[in-house]
Design brief:
The protein has 153 residues and is of the alpha+beta class. The chain has helices spanning 2-7, 11-41, 69-72, 92-97, and strands at residues 102-104, 108-111, 124-127, 135-136, 143-146. The protein has four helices and five strands; from the N terminus they run ααααβββββ. The radius of gyration is 23 Å and the shape is elongated. The termini are far apart. Residues 106-144 form the Zinc finger CHCC-type domain. It comes from Smittium culicis. This is Lactobacillus shifted protein.
Length: 153
């Protein structure tokens, strides 16, 4: 609402937007309730658990803003879509966790995504003030830690 007021949007458009947001919340709640009812009524049926995984390597959502796959892939847009034939990329959150911590000589590290050209992210500098705890790049999730022999403590 604050952004709309700053942009000079009319009261009617602000009201319409708030109505759409509340309608979406209601719709998501209704779908969740329907799924719970289906689960309780069809307890004897076999269900393919991979069909409801968020990603092939991650079973659930990993962010509060993320909508579960079984809710997001519903509605008229997906009526005639074979969801099993759609690409399902691996969740990067699990892949980046497998990367080793980079040991850095000094109190600062920089990260640009470790990809050449424009496919990485902007170069960011990371303070390594605590030598015992790795610091994480906010763009890509790579972890950096100060070498133990370079700490000032």
């Amino acid at each position: 609402m604050f952004k709309l007021a700053r942009l000079g949007a009319s009261t009617a458009s602000k009201t319409r937007l708030s109505g759409l947001v509340s309608a979406k919340r209601f719709y998501v709640k209704e779908i969740k309730n329907d799924l719970k009812k289906q689960d309780s009524s069809e307890s004897g049926d076999l269900v393919d658990l991979n069909a409801f995984k968020q990603a092939p390597n991650h079973p659930t959502v990993w962010s509060n803003e993320q909508i579960p796959r079984e809710i997001a892939m519903t509605g008229p847009r997906f009526e005639q879509t074979d969801l099993e034939a759609q690409p399902r990329p691996l969740a990067a959150i699990d892949l980046i966790a497998k990367q080793p911590v980079r040991i850095v000589n000094g109190r600062k590290a920089y990260c640009d995504g470790e990809v050449s050209g424009s496919t990485g992210h902007p170069r960011v500098y990371i303070n390594l003030d605590n030598p015992n705890t790795p610091a994480t790049c906010l763009y890509c999730g790579l972890r950096f830690q100060q070498a133990h022999d370079h700490s000032h403590h």
